[in-house]
Write a structure and sequence with these properties.
single chain; mainly beta; 10-stranded antiparallel sheet; two-stranded antiparallel ribbon; signal
């Protein structure tokens, strides 16, 4: 009986040791890097080079999910509709309603720079136009006039950084606008006037909130 009891105790100790080794090799859920949900207020402007006009962006809400270990984030920044005004050949006034329709999540990375943290990201939207008026007269455009391909807008902090995860900061970038489709008889005119490169965007991100 003593031998049997000793063998049972040895077996129990061996199983306990094995379990301890296995437990040590399995990552604990508590040790996983946290995902932070951070929401910001966002507003800014876009300067359209081809028409020498300005489009208001926002006010909006930027909602992000940040992997605290890698600095990678995804998010969403829906933009409200607005109106743009410009002049053709210097004196013919044109107005149009503009909508930015999200084509993909906002993605990017929050990283540490030499002075402070910085953000590098990409937003993607279809630009939709409606209610186009030339010299105050409405034109037939329809409700499906938009860019053929999504407009990719890179956004980054200034080179010196200056973005604070728990505060916010300013980001800017340069983007191109491609051709439009489904704009009725105005398609040729829109594609003559609006598409092009050298467009500038600046967005102020502020009032961070953890959720």
């Amino acid at each position: 009986m003593k031998k049997t009891g000793g063998r049972l105790r040895a077996l129990a100790l061996g199983l306990a040791s094995t379990a301890a080794v296995v437990a040590a090799t399995i990552p604990s859920p508590a040790s996983a890097a946290p995902i932070l949900n951070v929401t910001y207020d966002a507003s800014g402007t876009a300067q359209i080079a081809s028409t020498d006009s300005e489009i208001a962006l926002g006010p909006s809400t930027l909602s992000t999910q940040l992997d605290y270990a890698t600095g990678d984030f995804t998010g969403s920044m829906p933009l409200p509709g607005t109106t743009t005004r410009f002049e053709v050949i210097g004196f013919i006034p044109v107005t149009a309603d503009v909508a930015f329709v999200e084509a993909a999540p906002v993605t990017g990375t929050l990283s540490a720079g030499q002075v402070g943290s910085r953000v590098d990201g990409v937003a993607s939207y279809h630009i939709r136009l409606s209610n186009i008026k030339i010299v105050g007269f409405p034109t037939i455009t329809g409700s499906h006039c938009r860019t053929i391909n999504p407009v990719t807008i890179p956004i980054s902090s200034p080179p010196e950084g200056g973005f604070d995860l728990f505060v916010g900061g300013t980001v800017n970038g340069e983007f191109s606008i491609g051709n439009f489709q489904n704009c009725g008889l105005n398609t040729w005119l829109i594609n003559l006037l609006i598409p092009g490169s050298g467009n500038q965007v600046e967005i102020d991100i502020a009032n961070a909130r953890l959720s």
